[in-house]
Structure formats: C-alpha cells, structure tokens
Amino acid sequence: MIRRYCFGRVFETDAVQKKPEAQAGALPYFSVNEEEMSLTFSMEKDDIVYGLGENVRGINKRGWMYKSKCSDQPHHHEDTQSMYAAHNFILVSGKEQFGLFIDYPGILTFDVGYTDLSVLKITASDWNLDIYVIEGENPRDIVRQFRALIGRSYIAPRWALGAGQSRWGYMNRDDVREVVRQYRSLGLPLDMVYLDIDYMERYKDFTVNEERFPDFTAFNEEMKEQNIRLIPIIDAAVKEEKGYPVYDEGIEKGYFCTDENGKPFVGAVWPGRSLFTDMLNPEARDWFGNQYKVLLDQGVEGFWNDMNEPAIFYAEDRLADSLSEIAKLAGTQQNLSIEQFREFMGLFSSLSGNPDDYRKFWHDTPQGRFRHDQVHNLYGYNMTRAAGEAFERLEPDKRILLFSRASYIGMHRYGGIWQGDNKSWWSHILLNLHMMPSLNMCGFLYTGADLGGFGCDTTEDLVLRWYALGVFTPLMRNHAAFRTREQEPYQFKDIDSFRRILQLRYCLLPYLYSEYMKAAIDGDMMFRPLSFDHPDDKRCRTIEDQLYLGNELMIAPVYEQNAAGRYVYLPERMKMLRWLGDGKFEETVLEKGDHYIEVPLGDVVFFLREGHLIPVSSGGQCEAEVDFEHVNTLSFGEGAQYEYYHDDGVSRNYEAKENRTILRA
Ligand code: MIG
To answer: Global pTM?
Structure first.
C-alpha cells in the first residue's frame, strides 16, 4: 500500500508519473516539525535502515549522516556525506517495516543515527516535500511496490553487459586500436571501448577532433568489424564560443540557465567558460537531446553523461573576485603572514563546487522560475532524460546504451549510472558491493563501479580481486584517471587470470542478462542483502559483504589485501562453484553455517542455492559470439527449474511472452 503526503509548496518532479491523491492525515511513523522542516522517527535497537542508493558506508545506513546533494566527489571515503547522486528512498526493517520516498529536488539531510543512535531525522532545506509511505509484506515486496510507482527501469542493449575498457588518456585512433589489438590478440573478451573527453574538439560536446579521430564514421565501422562499440562521453556544460553551433543556437533560443538578471550564467568546466543548458525547460531539453544525433549518425550506439551534478570548476565572478583578492594580498611583498597564507589557500580551494555559485543561476520551468539550488538534484536526471527521450524519438526500434554520473530517482527510466570517481582502494571494492542492492532499490540496475579504481595508482592484485566482483555487475568496465598507472588487463603479468575471469563473464551472460531483464521488467532487485530472504536469521541481518544475485546465486568476493580467502556465512545449504576456466567448475556442497573458503588470487568462487539452476553459455570473445539460444545449465538439487529471459538483445519488445521460457535441469 502506498500513501502520499504533501508538505509545503510542492515542486512537482517527474520521479513518479502517476501520483496517488495526497492524504490529508498525519504522516505515519514520523513526527513532523514544520519550523525545523524535519521528520523524526525513533529507531529500535535492531532496526535496519536500507536504501539511499549511491552513498558511502554500509548496506545498513545506520550510524552516519547523508546529504542528498549531487556533488563531484572524486575523493569520497567514509566521512563523505554527498555523492554524485541523490536517492531519497529508505526502507526501515525491524519492529516497523516501511519504505519512504521523499520526492524533493533540493538538499535533504538523512541523519540515520548519527546525532543519536536511535533517531532517524530527515531535514529539508525548504518546506517543499512530496512524501510516499510504502507498506508491504516484506522488504522485497515494498521495493517492488516502490518500483511500480516510479516506473520501469532503463534497459540497456545486451552487448552492454559485455566487458568494457576505458581510460581517460586514450588520445587518438591509434591508442584505441592498440587497446583492441591487445585484447583480441590475447584472447581477452571485450565489447566496448570508451572515449573520454579527449575525442572532442577542445572539449566541445557533440564534436569529434578531426586530427585525433579523422573520419569517425569509418572508425566506428572499423571497430564494429571487430565487434567493438565506441562509447563517447558527453559533458553537461557547453563551451562558450562564437561559431560553435551548439553555443550559438543555445544563446539565440535562450536555452541556457541564466543569472539573476536574465543573462546566461557562465561557469568554467573542461572547455573553460561554459554554459549550462536549462534541462528543466522542456524545449531546451529536447534540443539538447537532439544534439546526440550528430554522433548517432556516425555510428555511435552508446554514451556516458558526465559532469552533470553539475560540476563547476569556477564561476566567472568568483574567479574575478578571488584574483583581485589575491592581488591585494600579494601586493608588493614577497612574504605572507600565516593568516594571509591561509586566506590565499582558501581563495583557491573555495573556487570549485562552491555552494554559493549554485545560488547564482536559474531555471525556467513549466512551474515557474526556480533558483538552481532549489532544484539542484534534478540536473543530471534531466540531462540524461534529454538523451533518453531523444533516443526514443530518433531510434525507436533500437536500444542505445546510456548511463550517467549524477542522478535522482526517476532518471532510472532513462539510463543507468556508474558509481562515480572511486579510488584504487580495497575499501572501494566493498563500497561497490554495498551500493548494488541500494541502487537496485531505487531502480538503478545498469550499474557498476570503475573496476581497478579510477583515482590513484592501482596494483595487479587489487584489479584481479575487483574483477571477481565486477564479473557479476551489469556494467563491467575498467576505467582509470589520466596519469594514473595503466591498468588494462594486459598491463599485468597474470594475463591468464584476467582472461579466465573475463571468460567467466561471457559464460554467465545468459544468466546475468536474464536476471537483469527480469529485474527491470518486473520491478525487482537483481542484487539483495541476505536479510531480505532470511528475515529471521540474525546473522543475515548483519552481513555486509555477501549478496544474493537473483534467486539463484550468492556472491561473497574477497576484498582485502593479501587475503588467501575469506569466511562466508551460508544461511542454507549451497553448492560452491569455483570457476576453473574452459567451461568447467569445481563443485562442492556446503552445509548451512560458517565456512572458511580459500580463494587464491585470480579465482572466482560463488554459490548456487539448492533447488535452483542457472543457464550458462560456452562463452565467446564478445557478446555476438555468445549463444543465448542453446544454453547449458548448472544446477543443484532435484527438480530445479529456471525462468529464462531471452530476446534479441537490441529491440524494444521487452514484454513479449515468448521471451520467457522455463529451463529444467
Ligand atoms: O573532472 O572526463 O567521472 O570518469 O574520466 C573529471 C574525465 C572529468 C570525471 C569522470 C571520469 C572521467 C573524467 N571526468
């Protein structure tokens, strides 16, 4: 059952399409403090608070303070409050059991037992809340109801579940060719190579640098002959440059966000001085979406949308002010007092992502003119929506790959997300795992983290361990930052292990794709905390490093440096599968309880639940080589069966009955 409550003047987002009538009565579970603009719920000792999508810390969010405020956070760690996304859904499980979605586009704070371990307090920055309370039989049921409310998740083409290689630093055609040559000659399966900002002409969206990527259409074809798709990045902001058609037209039509006085707001990002398309103006949004056609026409079939929190390196007026302050400080002297030095450093460090700058520009929406900070969390959402809606117009019969950095619930209908700029840290493998179920709750199914870590230098063992988790996530992409250590599998010694893990991915594709599609169509979770399935098993309620994948598998990756294996808790009897390569698994039946499992570096181990089976293929070098028609099965127990989802992987006829068949052992 879903009930809706409205507080204050409500800015209506599109997160929920068919909104139930708002209730008149009091909000259940919470006490409401209008003056403070807060909602408070008292938690029992054993209550779990799930949700909040992309965020730091555990699957159980209790014990920290989270802020929904889409932010560029390349250095995020345990004490980070805001990530790239704003996902205002929580699910309380304990004495009381309910889901709560706060549809509010401004900055929202979730104090989940931070100030007081037993108090959950949600504070808004504006009295403008549209709240949904969801009750159901169990957590999974609550999630399903929520997902039905927010609409079907974006569906990626099947090839996008293949492996991808990315790096900020592939400068030209030959760099890309070399990646593909290495992969193919070493027998490492691959479907996608990502193009980062350097493919553009001076970071101008919807352009291709002629010198670095001459005849881009032919290059896309050359890649497709090797079953590789190129996936270019699109940045949110548009370069200020007369003669650049996107800029000229945007200015002429008034499609950019404006300052207080109605003049286009200028902030600097990669292209230098840039403008921000007013993604909340439907006409501007359509226009921005139509720009993708330039690349579609050259053979591109997928995109990643970046910098759409939006990130701002500096605003034009703040830079001017800071520079004049610095000039004053410096004066004629060659020496700064410690106070002046601090001031000097502060002038630099407050330039990027300064909260004041987000109060300097405005959106003209069908609901009126809004200052950016009031609707901040909708920006990346609507950029990706611009693209997603354009693809439906331009390519109605074909799926286009699309995922974004910033997001808000509702965006899940238009694209997936990657989990932002992580680091080559062991703790970020675990964070990747934690986010999977939380994101699934919020409708984000096509997701994964930068494998191997984006920022800082990685190591071979870290990449191998991370791959052993990434092999299960729908988005499986190795990506790294400019100037960091190279981390393509072929940069390391143990190429055999990388090859084996990648082969496992393609062997599991029929199952992974089937689970992904069923989760999207049925509004279900692909990854679940163990406690969802075993609400009465106390151990399961605290497990933060194992997940269920579908109804069939449990995963428990190794995420610690120099570990030789790990303890795994089995809530029931399972069959452990150890991938040996060449289509073979070592199978060991294990009883319910705790087990120490040896997992040498390069191994992948996972668990099959009793009475279940999964479809597997004999693999391939790319998705096109995988036989989804004639699959083998891995099963445990008598009478196991599986509902196998299978379609052509590219068209949009998702719901056809014949896409589902029952497989028996
Ligand atoms: O300011 O395009 O998250 O994946 O490689 C950094 C360069 C901009 C941030 C993205 C990252 C990408 C990088 N971008």
So the answer is: 0.98
Q: Is 168's C-beta closer than 6 angstroms to any atom of ligand 1?
A: yes
Q: pLDDT tens-digit profile of 39-55?
A: 999 999 999 999 999 99
| Cα gap 544→553, rounded to integer Å | 16
Q: DSSP E strands: which ranges in 159-245?
A: 163-165, 192-195, 229-235, 237-239
Contact at 8 Å (CB) between 142 and 23? no
For residue 586, give the H/E element and its range.
strand 584-590
The answer to whether 454 touches 479, Cβ cutoff 8 Å, is: yes
Taking only the tens place, the pLDDT of each residue in 238-265 is 999 999 999 999 999 999 999 999 999 9
Of 353, 582, 557, residue with least CA distance to 464 = 557
Looking at the chain, how many residues does it have? Answer: 665
> What is the rounded distance in angstroms from the CA atom of residue 41 to the CA atom of residue 32?
9
Residues 324-381 have pLDDT tens digits of 988 888 776 778 889 888 998 999 899 999 999 999 999 999 999 999 999 999 999 9
Output the pLDDT for position 326: 86
In short, whether 524's Cβ falls inside 6 Å of ligand 1 is no
Q: Which residue's CA is the nearest one to ligand 1's atom 11?
A: 421
Q: Which whole-number Å values give the CA distances from 242 to 167, 250, 317, 636, in the listed order?
A: 31, 11, 21, 65
Measure 306 CA to ligand 1 centroid, in angstroms: 7
Closest CA to 111 of 167, 166, 39: 39
Query: What's the pLDDT tens digit per position in 555-598?
Result: 999 999 999 999 999 999 999 999 999 999 999 999 999 999 99
Distance of CA 262 to the CA centre of its chain: 34
DSSP bridge partners of 607:
554, 576
How far out from the chain centre does Cα 146 lie?
19
Within 202-349, where are the H helices?
216-225, 245-253, 282-291, 293-296, 316-330, 338-349
Nearest atom (ligand 1) to Cα of 269: 1
Which atom of ligand 1 is nearest the CA belonging to 481? 5
Domains of the chain and any CATH numbers? 2-150 (2.60.40.1760), 158-312+354-418 (3.20.20.80), 317-349 (no CATH), 512-664 (2.60.40.4040)
Two structure tokens written together for 618 = 């004999």
Q: Are the C-beta atoms of 487 and 170 separated by less than 8 Å?
A: no
Tokens of 429: 């493998």
pLDDT of residue 332: 64
Q: What angle do CA 31, 34, 39 make, to 5 degrees?
A: 35
Contact 421 CB / ligand 1 (< 6 Å) = yes
The answer to whether 512 and 474 have CB atoms below 8 angstroms apart is yes
Distance of alpha carbon 369 from alpha carbon 570, whole angstroms: 55
Amino acid at 341: F
Task: Determine if ligand 1 sits within 6 Å of the CB of residue 405.
Answer: yes
Helix (H, G, I), strand (E, B) or coil at 508: helix
Distance between the two ends of the chain, CA-based, in angstroms? 38
